[in-house]
Write a structure and sequence with these properties.
Radius of gyration: 17 Å
Order of helices and strands: HHHEHEHEHEEHEHEEEEE
Strand content: 15-25%
CATH topology: Purple Acid Phosphatase, chain A, domain 2
Helix content: 25-40%
CATH class: Alpha Beta
Strand order of the largest sheet: 4-5-6-7-9-8
């Protein structure tokens, strides 16, 4: 283990969290979800969680963000994709070593860099690309559009998972090609992206917030009453060139309480 990784591991192990330090993140997606659901205290009291993404290429920034994120005692951390550069096995192995000491459940969705070779390695190391689970009255849904479009399989999964009987929170990597985000987004509907179809499903289900990555900055946009939030300042080279949002490293802190959902951008000092 590299000295920096060892130091990070010690720091993370000493910080307060939901689980003892012997519990490590590199478990299956199912085990991470089980760990979240095993702590029912947040159902009545409320809970925070963290959203960040595009962490590839800058281990130091990502390490500092994880240390800072843990101080908020989150129920879990959601990574919106692009954990590695090329999607190779050794990169995933290194990534898992880097987060091994983090005793907070971590959920991932694939980004385009994660599947440069194929999606089988992503699934082997990080789990299913489409997933959902319930926590109290909330349903969390992760969807795969890393290839630039929503496949028919993903559309069918979303149609089954989205419901207006739960408060649904959705995450996928590439933003829809709407407004200013079209400069660096998923494929348009005209070329098979199916982003419009997905946004229609999301609107119909009354989704409150959708979390995104891919554009390396923080930005928000409301479309048809739904709040779309990019949290992609996790370590990759920032995109100040587009002239919108906040091109800085940080993460989104979401608080779920009796009064509903609030969120704020937490920059890395």
């Amino acid at each position: 283990m590299k000295p920096k990784s060892l130091i990070l591991g010690i720091i993370l192990a000493l910080l307060p969290g939901h689980f003892p330090a012997v519990w490590a993140v590199p478990l299956s997606l199912e085990k991470n979800i089980q760990a979240i659901q095993a702590d029912p205290s947040g159902v009545e009291k409320g809970f925070p969680f963290i959203v960040l993404g595009d962490v590839r290429g800058n281990e130091e920034v990502y390490a500092r963000l994880l240390v800072k994120a843990k101080t908020f005692n989150p129920l879990f951390i959601l990574n919106t994709g692009d954990m590695v550069n090329w999607g190779q096995a050794y990169e995933y192995e290194n990534y898992l070593k880097r987060i091994a000491a983090l005793d907070v459940p971590m959920l991932h969705i694939p980004g385009n860099h994660d599947i440069n070779l194929d999606q089988s390695l992503y699934r082997e190391y990080l789990g299913l690309a489409n997933w959902s689970f319930d926590y109290g009255n909330y349903r969390f849904i992760g969807l795969d559009n890393a290839g630039g479009n929503f496949s028919r399989e993903t559309m069918a999964f979303a149609a089954a998972a989205l419901t207006d009987r739960k408060i649904c929170l959705v995450a996928f990597h590439k933003p829809p090609a709407v407004g200013r985000w079209a400069v660096h987004a998923m494929q348009a509907d005209a070329t098979g992206g199916r982003g419009g179809e997905m946004m229609t499903l999301i609107k119909k289900a009354g989704v409150s917030k959708v979390f995104l990555g891919h554009i390396h900055l923080y930005d928000e946009m409301e479309v048809d009453g739904v709040q779309y939030i990019i949290s992609a300042g996790g370590g990759a080279k920032l995109y100040g060139k587009y002239g919108f949002g906040k091109a800085e490293y940080g993460f989104v802190l979401v608080r779920v309480g009796a009064d509903g959902l609030t969120h704020q951008w937490i920059p890395l000092e």
